[in-house]
Structure formats: structure tokens, C-alpha cells
Amino acid sequence: MTKPARLRAFWWTLHRWVGLALMVLLVPIAVSGALLVWHDPLDALLHPARYAVTGTQLVQPSAYLASATAALAGSAQPVAVRFPADEGWPVIVMARGAPPVEGGPTRFVNVYLDPPTARALDVVDFRSSLIGWLHRFHENLTIPEYSGRAIVGWAGVGMLILSLTGIWLWWPRNGAFLPGLRWRRTPHTTTNLHHLFGFWISIPLAVVSFTGIYLGFPQTARDVMSSIAPMTPQGQRPGFGPI
Fold it and tell me: Is the distance from CB of 146 to CB of 85 less than 8 angstroms?
């Protein structure tokens, strides 16, 4: 076997086994991410009552804060107000409360309000809701105490390897780019589908993988980036200071 053939066989074996090994992890992470793209419509479909607004006219922000404070009954402190970006959606007051158990994660509560009346439509503990669970699963597999965030980050590393090795394996051996886009590269339909769709999603997949790696290892990523170019120091997250 020639050296190029041995190299191709190595990358093909790596591409195949990384894909098989990560399939069980990457599929649910991808599904949770896809659902989060439409988190508001999905939540409205599952809980129509909290989106049953009576109009679009807004009132003074103080009215929303007063209504949310009354609905929270001292269980949490409002920290931010989210106004609807489109018509037909509620105003949401986000609040923070003490952890339900000592040493546990901070409690986040969303109060859904009718825009014209500031009437409370629903009070939701974000972490215990479906959308909150999807966020936690996509970020750390709901197991932060077992390095869930790092596991997701390493899954991103594997996905990046799949993307880059896939492009290398897809590239025609004669170096011609356009012939690689043809449909019938092999006699097998499944292989042709993999060649075609794999190429077109490889670059977006590599970008998504890279950003996922950054979010999975934020401090390490910032240290690496700081060695290349100056970076602005991290400040307090917006929406969590005095309202």
C-alpha cells in the first residue's frame, strides 16, 4: 500500500469510528439545539395560557415590575424585563431567587405578563421547565457536577474532527473540485448521499463545533485567544445587576 493510500485509510478509519462513538451523544445534543432555535413557539404550543395576551400596547415598566413582584410573593427578586420583539407575545420579567437547597444552583423564575394590563399570566421556575431542561442538557447534559460541560466540549472536538476529515476524504483524489460535486461518485446511493450532504454541511458544522468547543472550555479558549490577540476582560452578564 502506498503512503497516500495508507494516509487515506487512516483518516477514513478515524472518521468512521469517531462518528460511531459520538453518535449516541451528538444526536440528542443536536436535537436539543434544534428545539432551542424555536424555544418560544415550542413553549407557546405546550403552554398556550402563558401566551394568551389581550393586546400589544405596552404600559410603564414599573407596572410590570410591580405585578411580577406581587406574583413572586418574595420568593425571587426581579432582575430584568424582556419586552416582546414581535406582536402577540407576553412581557417576561426574569427573577433570581435563593437556591432550593443550600449550595445548589441559583433559582431562576420567569413571570409572563399581559402587555396591555400587566396581569400575570404564569410564574415558571425556569430550570424545571422543558425549555430550561433543554438549555441545561445542551450546555452540560444536566450533569454539571460530573463535568457535563467538558463532555459537551469534547463532543464538539469530535464533531470538528468529523467535519475536517470529512472534507479531506470527500476531496477527489485528482484534485479537481467540480467533479466532486457530481451525484454518481460511487455505485451506492447511501454513499453518494453522504458525499453530497456531508460536503454542504461540513463548513457550517465545523463553525458550530468550534463555537461549541469555546463554550465548553471558556477559560482555556480565552487563554488561547489572548495569546493571539488582546481580549476584553469579562464583565458582569447583562440583566443581572440592579434593575
Answer: no
Q: Alpha carbon of 177 to those of 168, 171, 181: distances in Å? A: 12, 7, 7
Distances (CA, A) of 134 to 31, 53, 129, 151, 162: 9, 25, 9, 16, 25
35-82, pLDDT tens digit by residue? 999 999 999 999 999 999 999 999 999 999 999 999 999 999 999 999
Whole-structure pTM value: 0.77
pLDDT digits (tens, 9 = 90+) for 91-124: 999 999 988 777 778 899 999 999 999 999 999 9
Place of cell 420568593: 75
Nearest by Cα to 97 from 80, 78, 81:
78
**Closest of 238, 215, 169 to residue 29, by C-alpha:** 215
| Extended beta strands in the chain, E state | 77-82, 91-97, 107-113, 120-125
Contact 191, 185 (CB under 8 A): yes
The residue written with cell numbers 444526536 in the block is 27
